[in-house]
Each structure stands twice: as structure tokens, then as C-alpha cells.
Specification:
Layout: H1 3-14, H2 18-27, H3 34-41, H4 54-69, H5 86-96, H6 101-111, H7 117-123, H8 137-148
Helix pairs in contact: 1-8, 2-3, 2-4, 4-5, 6-8
């Protein structure tokens, strides 16, 4: 899923305005203004569209964890990854909303996709692990749809 689509879906899921979205990005260490956020949320064929970089999406995801769970002064801030994958988005959502594998399964199944606990576990494995499975756009969309509902 491209960063603009992911940011658009996450904003819709959270039900926040552009200013709040910019504030969440700031929590993650980013610096964007409301106008930039509006440009990120436009469709690619609209005038004023601006491509969202992986760094901005990663800062938003780090900020989302802080926004939902609060900052932990004992822990250092999370490093910003170079590239954002669907697996990383799923991991950050699981952390932010404190979801367990069974809850993720229920959310995805409520949206219309059947998935086993082993498949969910494989998505959250480290990339080098032998049971790692890349997360597809469809699974991420169903997860976001389930969280929105």
C-alpha cells in the first residue's frame, strides 16, 4: 500500500482532522504543517497532490503509538525506518491499539477475510525469520476496515 493511501485510510479510521494528523506526526518526531497534510491526503489526480514519503508515514506511526498509549519517559524514541512495509504498519497498529492475535483475527474476519492464527503470527515475525510472511495490501485493508468499524 503506498504511503498516501495508508495515511488516508488511517486518518479515516481515527476520524481526526488535518491539524490533529499533523500533531500526531509531530509526536513521532516529524515536522509538517496542515497544508502539507492536506496535500498528502489528496488523490493523485487532484491538483495540489504531494507524495508522502516513507519517513513521514513512519513518524506518523510512531506518533500514533504515543497518541494512543502515551509516551514512556523511560524508553528512548523509536528510530524512523527507511522504508515502511505493510508488515510494519500492522505491527504499529497492533502496538498502538494493544491488539492480540485473536483480536486481529476477529477484526479481519468481521471485514470478510478468513485467516488463521498461524498466518497472523507469520505477518508479525521478523523479516529474516523462516516463518515470516509479507503482508499483502488486501490483509492491511481488511484490518483497517475492521478497526474502523
Amino acid at each position: 500500500m503506498n504511503p498516501n493511501d495508508a495515511l488516508r485510510s488511517l486518518r479515516y479510521m481515527l476520524g481526526v482532522n488535518d491539524a490533529k494528523l499533523a500533531a500526531v506526526i509531530a509526536l513521532g518526531g516529524g515536522s509538517v504543517n496542515k497544508a502539507q497534510v492536506s496535500a498528502f491526503l489528496k488523490q493523485d489526480d487532484e491538483e495540489g497532490y504531494e507524495g508522502c514519503k516513507d519517513e513521514i508515514l513512519a513518524q506518523f506511526l510512531n506518533g500514533l503509538v504515543i497518541y494512543k498509549r502515551g509516551a514512556d519517559p523511560a524508553r528512548p524514541s523509536q528510530p524512523v525506518p527507511r522504508s515502511v512495509t505493510n508488515n510494519l504498519i500492522c505491527k504499529k497498529l497492533r502496538t498502538a491499539f494493544q491488539l492480540k492475535d485473536t483480536e486481529i483475527m476477529a477484526l479481519v474476519e468481521k471485514s470478510g477475510l478468513k485467516i488463521s492464527k498461524a498466518e497472523v503470527g507469520a505477518i508479525f515475525r521478523a523479516e529474516g525469520h523462516r516463518n515470516y510472511r509479507p503482508c499483502g495490501d488486501q490483509f492491511l485493508r481488511y484490518l483497517l476496515k475492521g478497526l474502523t468499524a
